[in-house]
Amino acid sequence: MGCGHGQGTMKTPLALTTIAALVVPCLPAHADFQICNRMSYVVEVAVGLQESGSLVTHGWYRVDPGQCGVTVEGAINADRFYVHARALPPYGTSPQAGNADLCVGRQHFIIPAAGRGCSRPGQQLARFAEVKPFQSDAGWTAYLAEESDYNDEQARRAAVQRLLTINGYDVNPIDGVKGRRTDAALAAFLKDHNLPPEAPNSPTFFDTLLDAAQKPEGTGFLWCNETGNTVMAAIANEDRGTIVSRGWYRVEPGKCTRPEVLTRARRVYSYAEALDANGQLLRRGGKPVTWGGRTMLCTRAMAFEVSDQKECTSRGLNAAGFASVELAAQGATTLRLKEP
For residue 324, what are the β-bridge partners? Predict the structure, then answer.
């Protein structure tokens, strides 16, 4: 890693987020590599360390908003550091920017020679961003940050706002600022789930919000995966005559996921496809396993948000048939994804 002073930023997968880190003068090997999350998303992180030409990836490490988490422990003398951050399933994913395709596993993993292709079942390539962390008392440190440039407290508040919105409560805008609308939505969530007033101060409150977003009870629109395979799903909302498609949302077997739906929406469009054990489109009898309809909208292989639905393929996008889904006036509208 080079020596000097400066600041680098890199687009990463989460809603125009950045990975920011400082370059510092050369120092001897330092213990641990930690990631600090100043985004409004709960994320799982994978890291890559290159030392003397050998590159090893490690993952997954959960890091909550406003918190720091140690990824690799012990004395580290890496030449280069790489980071890949993925949002948990209720959020959906966004385009992964970066400069290196490295191997990751489905569960906790350590993969040597991760830059030379993925050799074992269950491994797949993911786009990593190279970062230049700074050294602190806790070891090497890099930050995940959004363009909103939240501090720790604001990141946690914005993350609560985002999950309340996913759970169907009216919080917008998601800005990390305490206000009456956020207080009212939070109070309604606590009441609906029989939680005490002090629950938001608990270190497990993000788990409570995430669990609620993956259960069929409540409000809004959700997919429930009743298959034995992971499903990736996309949603489209109509806003002032324009249909905006967005994906992908990961729906694990036996789980439900709520995508973000516009307030007072009466209809959404849905498309979903099943993945095999290697993360590829599942096929049965030579046909892909998908759930959709007749409304052709734009998608792409990586995560996306598309507002122009014309001539998808000529613009380097994919076209998929989405199903039109009428939303219930009250309660939840559940689309159950079953084996064909």
Answer: 269
SS3 at position 38: strand
What single letter denotes the amino acid at residue 85? A
Residue 245 and residue 184 share a domain: no
Measured between its terminal Cα atoms, the distance across the chain in Å is 51
Dump the DSSP string for 16-31. Answer: TEEEEEEE------EE
Same-domain pairing of 223 and 207: no
Task: Tell me the C-alpha distance between 249 and 10, whole Å.
Answer: 23
155 in any annotated domain: no
Tell whether 270 is covered by a domain: yes
Say what the pLDDT of residue 287 is.
93
This prediction's pTM: 0.72
Please report where in the chains the tokens 């609308």 appear, as a residue: 181
- Total domains in the chain come to 3
Q: Which of 149, 178, 203 is the last residue of a domain?
A: 149
Range of the domain at 303: 219-340
Q: Is residue 98 located within the same domain as residue 74? A: yes
Domain membership of residue 156 (yes or no) is no
Between CA 23 and CA 281 the distance in angstroms is 41
- 271-297 pLDDT tens trace: 999 999 878 899 998 899 999 999 999
Burial category of 254 from C-beta neighbours within 10 Å (exposed 0-12, middle 13-18, buried 19 and up)? exposed
Going by their DSSP bridges, the two strands 220-225 and 332-337 should be labelled as parallel
**Residue 1 placed within a domain:** no
Name the more confident of 136 and 216: 136
CA 69, CA 100: separation in Å to the nearest integer?
23
DSSP β-bridge partners for residue 111: 57
Q: Are residues 131 and 41 in the same domain?
A: yes
C-beta separation of 300 from 312 below 8 A: no
List pLDDT tens digits, range 250-265.
Answer: 898 998 888 878 777 7
